[in-house]
Design goal:
Blueprint (H helix, E strand, L loop, with lengths): L1 E6 L7 H5 L7 E5 L2 E10 L4 E9 L1 H5 L9 H6 L9 H10 L1 H4 L7 H4 L3 E11 L3 H9 L5 E7 L13 E10 L1 H16 L9 H9 L10 H8 L4 H16 L8 H11 L4 H16 L3 E5 L5 H7 L6 E6 L2 H11 L6 H4 L2 E5 L14 E5 L10 H12 L3 E7 L26 H15 L1 E8 L10 E8 L5
Parallel strand pairs: 8-9, 8-11, 9-10, 11-12
Antiparallel strand pairs: 1-4, 1-5, 2-3, 3-4, 5-7, 6-7, 12-14, 13-14
Helix pairs in contact: 4-8, 8-10, 9-11, 10-11
The structure holds S-adenosyl-L-homocysteine (SAH).
């Protein structure tokens, strides 16, 4: 079984950094069901191909089985399993290319988040449902699919004709995306799995399918086959996929899109500069209780926790998934009691009045307002400035003027697909002044990131201070 992944992105040998596998070496890996070998049949600046060869131990597959099913003694040992792409390949991908699948690359972090021309070829795929089904699975993901049929005629009882294909997928994609597609869809094409499918398989499917599965026209069939037709699991997965799809239009920002923005901004690690600036402003305000509105995955919360000035810290977000990720990353469950007592996560929306949000000294609203539909902005203003009404509000948003300085951002595009607007410095200052006036806050502006003489800083920040506060 052979999977090859090629790119013509120049220099193509960067593929080695994306896959964390050196093009100059052959590497072999022990897997429970055999061995995997990674090597590069070609590696030039124009075109580079990485190959994953699976050598499946057919004897190992039989060991420990009570009986060989209905295929007779020969069928136990001689079958298609060592030669086709199956759930073994998925396991191999996730262990051999784990970092690449997670979109991580130390040396080429930006490239890992950038779609590049990729061709993936699998020899061979067994597909129950034939070529039409194969195309229905792969084409909606934006691949050009080329299929070569292998007509097999033979005496082996469990081999039928024309269900085997060599498949080539071509598209402009992130490497992590391609690996996630293969990981989920290969066992789906095959419609078989070599291991027992339990509850955690639903989580795995949703995690690896994040960003593409919910909107896939064949999502139900994918869930059915991936979960080995176990009805309760399939029902659970489909319900959650539908919920995800429905919320795709609201303010929740799936991790994939955040990664896109992070990739764009990474060269100057703007996000860190932003959080440092926000933290400093909250510290200076003297706040001890703070709430992070739209806390996302909780990066600011972690910084706040590390600072003992803050004795009560609340993270709030509309996205369940972001809150789960925040809890995970903070290791909330294993946090020492004293630290745990200072932090709380709340699910809620900044466009609805919420009594839990009142009574804080300080609030942060970092890169959130641009995710709100413009008509909801006035609801947000009342929730934060009129009802929650903390003494200090530190708010950041992109400076739209700076976008021309990002070479990878096409003209007229926002930095993040979920952004509903991005303001110029004048628009931001006008809005801030008007909010300050209506709700009784003073506004002081600050630049975050390197200030360009023409277009200003990449991020703009305002610190609002309630006027009725002494001093
Ligand atoms: N402040 C974080 C996350 C910014 S991304 C950071 O700087 O890393 C924007 C966040 O705002 C997302 O997590 C999104 O779920 C959240 N969000 C969007 N609309 C919201 C609303 N109406 N109420 C609360 N949170 C919202």
């Amino acid at each position: 079984m052979l999977l090859t992944i090629s790119t013509t992105h120049n220099p193509a040998t960067d593929l080695g950094y994306l896959l964390h596998k050196n093009p100059a070496r052959v590497q072999s890996f022990d897997l429970t069901f055999g061995r995997g070998h990674v090597f590069y049949p070609e590696a030039s600046a124009e075109r580079c191909t990485a190959a994953l060869l699976l050598d499946i131990d057919a004897v190992h597959l039989v060991r420990g089985r009570q009986h060989g099913g209905d295929s007779g003694p020969l069928g136990q040992y001689v079958n298609d399993r060592p030669y086709v792409a199956s759930s073994f390949l998925s396991v191999a991908i996730s262990s051999v290319f784990r970092s690449a699948m997670g979109g991580r690359s130390t040396e080429r972090a930006e490239l890992a988040n950038t779609p590049i021309p990729i061709e993936a070829r699998i020899a061979v795929v067994r597909c129950r449902g034939g070529e039409p089904f194969l195309r229905r699975l792969l084409e909606p993901l934006g691949y050009t699919v080329t299929v070569e049929h292998h007509e097999l005629v033979g005496p082996l009882p469990n081999i039928r004709t024309a269900v085997y294909f060599t498949v080539t997928l071509a598209g402009t994609k992130r490497v992590a995306e391609v690996l996630s597609h293969l990981y989920v869809l290969i066992p789906v094409l095959d419609d078989e799995k070599h291991y027992w499918v339990g509850d955690d398989e639903v989580e795995k499917l949703l995690r690896v399918g994040e960003g593409w599965l919910a909107a896939h026209p064949e999502r139900e069939m994918i869930a059915q086959r991936y979960l080995k037709h176990r009805h309760s699991l399939v029902r659970d997965a489909i319900a959650r996929l539908i919920a995800d799809d429905d919320s795709a239009d609201d303010e929740t920002a799936p991790a994939a899109r955040d990664a896109e923005e992070a990739g764009l901004e990474r060269p100057i690690s703007l996000h860190e500069q932003r959080l440092t600036a926000v933290l400093a402003a909250l510290r200076t305000s003297g706040a001890t209780s703070v709430v992070d509105f739209g806390c996302g995955e909780g990066k600011l919360l972690r910084l706040l926790l590390d600072d003992t000035q803050f004795t009560r810290i609340v993270g709030m977000d509309v996205s369940h998934r972001a809150l789960e990720a925040a809890a995970d990353r903070m290791r909330l469950e294993r946090m020492p009691e004293k630290r745990r007592a200072r932090i709380e996560l709340l699910h809620g929306s900044l466009t609805y009045r919420d009594a839990r949000l009142a009574g804080f000294d300080g609030a942060a609203v970092v890169e959130v307002i641009e995710h709100l539909d413009a008509p909801r902005l006035s609801a947000f203003e009342r929730v934060v400035f009129q009802f929650a009404r903390p003494r200090t509000i530190v708010l950041t948003t992109p400076n739209a003027e700076y976008n021309v300085r990002w070479p990878t951002l096409p003209a007229g595009r926002f930095r993040h697909r979920d952004h509903r607007f991005e303001w110029t410095r004048a628009q931001f200052q006008e809005w801030s002044a008007s909010v300050g006036e209506r709700f009784g806050y003073d506004a002081v502006f600050e630049a975050v990131g390197p200030v360009d003489p023409e277009v200003g800083p990449p991020t703009q920040m305002v610190v609002f201070t309630r006027q009725d506060v002494d001093g």
